[in-house]
Amino acid sequence: MAPSATTQEPASVTTFEAKGAVAVDKAKTTLVNTDGMKYPEYAPYNDPNDVFPEPEPFDYHDRALDADPAMPVFYNDHVKVEELTPYLGVRVTGLDLASLDKAGQDQLALLAAKKGIVFFASDDKVKQTFRDISMKKKLDMVRYYGQLHQHAVQPRPVSSTEISVVYQDNVNTVRKHWWPNRLSRAIWHIDQSQERQPPGMTFFCCMQSDAPSGGDTLVGSLVEAYERLSPAMKQFVCGLKAVHSSKVMAAKAARVGGANRRQQVESVHPVVYEQPATGYKSLYINPERITHFEGLRHEESEMLLKFLSDHITKGADFHARYKWSEGDVCVWDQRVLIHSAVLDNMEHRRHFIRITALAGVPTPAKYTPSEHEDMYAK
Ligand SMILES: O=C(O)CCC(=O)C(=O)O
Ligand SMILES: [Fe+2]
Known about the structure:
By secondary structure, the protein is an alpha+beta fold. It has a single domain, classed as Double-stranded beta-helix. The protein has seven helices and 17 strands. It has helices spanning 27-30, 102-115, 135-143, 222-227, 231-238, 247-256, 298-314; strands at 15-16, 24-25, 80-83, 90-93, 117-120, 164-168, 199-209, 217-221, 241-245, 266-270, 272-274, 281-283, 290-293, 319-322, 329-333, 337-341, 350-358. The strands form five sheets. A seven-stranded mixed beta sheet has the order 3-4-5-15-7-17-6, with helices on one face. A three-stranded antiparallel beta sheet has the order 14-8-16. A three-stranded antiparallel beta sheet has the order 10-9-13. Helix 2 (102-115) links the parallel strand 4 (90-93) and strand 5 (117-120). The longest helix is centred in the last third of the chain and has 17 residues, at 298-314. 2-oxoglutaric acid binds next to strand 16 and strand 17. Pfam families: TauD (PF02668). Residues 81-356 form the TauD/TfdA-like domain. It comes from Thyridium curvatum. Belongs to the TfdA dioxygenase family.
């Protein structure tokens, strides 16, 4: 189909050099077909003058610690909370995410920490209104959970640096070219784990979805991934630290002509992260960011990263897959969940926004044997 495309920005290709960043061509990632676009104020945009500072260290408080453990805002006669799979994820209907008060938001943090991810959908009685509330209200709601992250490479709306736009349409096919020469475009990852205080609560909203099928999101439980390991492997990985780097992300941005607003960042995090509110142990492995494990020889490190990444990404029995409807929003806890887009339908508009709150400096989990520790050995 020949696009009757109008572009939001001049079609001319401009390049810029941010401090310490690679030269980029900003036109490619922000090209849009505006015909039929429902939320143009959230269209993808890059400002060539954007240079973001490093996030300031901040005191983090996990809101889940203040939650009523019974989570009555979710578990009552009016709200339906359905399990996606036994190990992770719930789908909530009968409750508008945007209507939550402080107590509800605290309980949402606890539910996300326990289930990994909470999808909010509309039903006949209660519609999700998150996509229609003002940008300020959206941002305030997520800021409640921690300092907002400003993404170094992803497009943003014109009027906010704290929202990331995940976008494709029949003229903007840039996502298809992110990872050339791979057999699958499923790229499992944790967002922005290279930060000193990496993300916790993350909101992801389906603004528009024109495709008849496809564009699902895959999620996997890092808590269950840890649980499956043998006691000997658990003991070993509990003492390990991994180096997470933004290097690969910057290279990707350069390849597809995206922005690069930050200098390269590298952080060392425990391989097993203890979620502060639940105490759950999570196998904090980000195949797209970890360069190596501290203290291991090169080959040991390569082998371990491959093994743990394969384990996490191939464990379909601790994964789930979500099919989106417009207006659905999910809220996940990045500390216990890995995810991937499914880039299987690139011909239609798919327009999402993501707002990400940073959390604390990851706390290493201590290995503790448990009674059902070796349940998977049988
Ligand atoms: O497009 C998707 O389904 C997921 C995108 C993603 O990885 C993200 O927004 O962090
Ligand atoms: Fe992501």
